[in-house]
Write a structure and sequence with these properties.
The structure is a homodimer. By secondary structure, chain A is α/β, with parallel strands linked by helices. The first copy, chain A, folds into two domains: 5-128 and 310-340, Medium-chain alcohol dehydrogenases, catalytic domain (Quinone Oxidoreductase, Chain A, domain 1, Alpha-Beta Complex), CATH 3.90.180.10; 132-286, 3-Layer(aba) Sandwich (Rossmann fold), CATH 3.40.50. Chain A is 23% helix and 25% strand. Chain A has nine helices and 15 strands. Chain A has helices at residues 51-54, 132-145, 163-172, 184-192, 209-219, 234-242, 272-275, 292-304, 321-327; strands at 5-11, 24-30, 38-47, 77-84, 94-97, 105-109, 113-115, 152-155, 176-181, 198-201, 224-229, 243-251, 279-282, 312-316, 336-340. In chain A, the strands form three sheets. In chain A, strands 3, 4, 5, 6, 7, 14 and 15 form a seven-stranded mixed sheet that branches. Chain A has a six-stranded parallel sheet with strand order 10-9-8-11-12-13. In chain A, α2 packs across α3 (163-172) and α5 (209-219) crosses α6 (234-242). The interface between A and B is medium-sized, with 34 and 35 residues. β13 of chain A pairs antiparallel with β13 (279-282) of chain B.
Chain lengths: 346, 346
């Protein structure tokens, strides 16, 4: 035993709709010694992401197993190595990996971690623009949408952790970018700071795909060439009325339906995909892990030079994680949501 | 003037739902002389295809303009050259092309026609297995689904002109093939004659995607790798519950919704596309016209050697075209529907 205690967050029961705060409990456990090839990490930052809601559905077959009741939740985290029993990792190293979130200390296989440089970017950026959200945005744009200069790109959830990066890559590729968000403040941010050409507050359209279709037709009279889908629902239906011939759609998320207790029917105009010869690809970032080096090679310089900007919504302390997670579905956040679990250094 | 008279079928009004016989009228017109680069053709066979229903919606933007009221309908046909004013075409030649259907004689640009050999295959085959339906099937399978040996393929409309070819290519590629059709007789045909492994009558499932999902899960416990979509509706929803990780879907048609007067919502489980990393591509055969030579190179020998079989539902006489067309939407036909407009030779 290490003598260290770690508080960790467990799920007491699976959510029916929105993931409310009463579904969780905090337990304190002893932190175990790292075995052969393992490291013991003190968590500095943890992330909450919409895909975690999918892991709270025990009955749905997915790419990742559901969270178990009575065990700690898990997710991506940036931490500092406290004790290493693995080659290449030393005490004091900063690392990022897929495990260790939702708790203060984590002992596990070192192979799930990558060392990061705390001087290149703030540590939390490795959970955002230089982490999975950034790579998700980059992979969707470069591997599926393949935008060409002069084309029109549309992005839902455009002020979010992923969408805000998609918009900026779209501009770097020479596209006219149309982005949607859920408040005037977010729309202002993506136009003034990120260079988005047209921003709209989807709440202004009262869930009417017909109204939104008309608006999009005015903004993109020749059709929308590429689409990055984060939201689903009536915006997808409106997009399908305006998708151009040979359009490409990256399906990354459909956050509008994740909390539905009853299934919501899909768009009534899927047949448009046929006549217009449209490509749709659903994807998760792990499909493209082999391109990690290429991602860092492109995104690193963009971030360092300020060509790609990022914004964070910071929650303080492990206990705020349930609230931060719930906020993903209410639109309370802008940019990447990160939770500070401990200080950068002790 | 040629002195020839041609009867041709016009659309009097656009259909609201199913395309009933009272929407048409037959007019007799004078046949004009071919101008420079044109041919005058006597139509031997004409085709009716589901896409023509799409051309009967004057308000929908599509890849091909809508039919005009008061003008003849048009579509693919095989005919014999009566008079040629174009290089490479002589009187007596047999040709296939996209124009000339729905009438007895047609004068138009020779460039829309390809000469065919009446001794290689029956003339009507150039509207089916060696024509657009065959090429549609071949392109969907080889360019989008890319089936691998040992995988499971599913096909709706599996006894139809396109689906029956898809099934057979699936077997030639070493797949387990699941096909759906609308009668026991059709199911028997695709299993006994085409080698389909599992055939089901979709009417047995009462439009319940849950019931069909369960059946498909039993037939393909590891998931369905590739899907050729001809039909849409509840079968698509059931398929999306059973699509495998990395699945590929060719969207060719959604015949179940073409006659709907009210839009029918799409499947409620589109999010499955995301987690399972599924590719969906809508397509029309003209996207792949540059592969015509490759198509003939593969399909020609398959047909000649009997590896790919085909079946036709033959209607006699131009006047039967409206009935033949309506039959596409009621499931009254098996294989390719062709209409004999005139004798092979005069």
């Amino acid at each position: 035993m290490t003598g260290l205690k770690s508080r960790e967050i467990h799920l007491k029961e699976y959510p029916k709709g929105a993931p409310t705060a009463d579904l969780y409990e905090i337990k304190e456990v002893d932190v175990r010694e790292p075995g052969e090839g393992e490291v013991l990490i003190r968590i500095v930052w943890m992330t909450v992401d919409p895909y975690m809601r999918g892991r709270m559905r025990p009955d749905v077959k997915s790419y990742i197993p559901p969270f178990q009741l009575g065990e700690p939740l898990d997710g991506g985290a940036v931490g500092q190595v406290v004790k290493s029993n693995a080659e290449g990792f030393a005490e004091g190293d900063y690392v990022v990996g897929f495990n260790g979130g939702w708790r203060e200390y984590y002992t596990g296989p070192a192979e799930a971690y990558t060392k990061v440089d705390p001087n290149l970017a703030p540590l939390s950026a490795y959970l955002g623009v230089l982490g999975m959200p950034g790579m998700t945005a980059w992979a969707g744009v470069t591997q599926i949408m393949e935008p060409k200069e002069g084309e029109t790109m549309m992005v839902t959830g455009a002020a979010g952790a992923v969408g805000s990066i998609v918009c900026q890559i779209g501009k770097l590729k020479g596209c006219k970018v149309i982005g949607s968000a859920g408040s005037q403040e977010k729309c202002d941010w993506i136009t003034s700071e990120l260079g988005v050409d047209v921003a709209y507050n989807y709440k202004d359209f009262d869930g009417s795909s017909a109204k939104l279709s008309k608006f999009l037709a005015e903004q993109a009279p020749k059709g929308i060439d590429t689409y990055f889908e984060n939201v689903g629902g009536f915006q997808l239906e409106a997009l399908l009325n305006n998708i151009g011939f040979g359009g490409r759609i990256a399906l990354c998320g459909m956050i509008s339906v994740y909390n539905n207790t009853d299934p919501e029917p899909g768009p009534a105009n899927l047949t448009n995909l046929i006549g217009r010869g449209v490509l749709v690809r659903g994807f998760i970032v792990s499909n493209y892990m082999n391109l990690m080096t290429q991602f860092f090679g492109e995104m690193g310089p963009w971030v360092a030079s300020g060509k790609v900007k990022f914004r964070e919504t910071v929650y303080e302390g492990l206990d705020s994680a349930p609230e931060a997670f719930a906020g993903l579905f209410t639109g309370d956040n802008t940019g990447k949501v990160v939770i500070r679990v401990g200080p950068d250094s002790m």
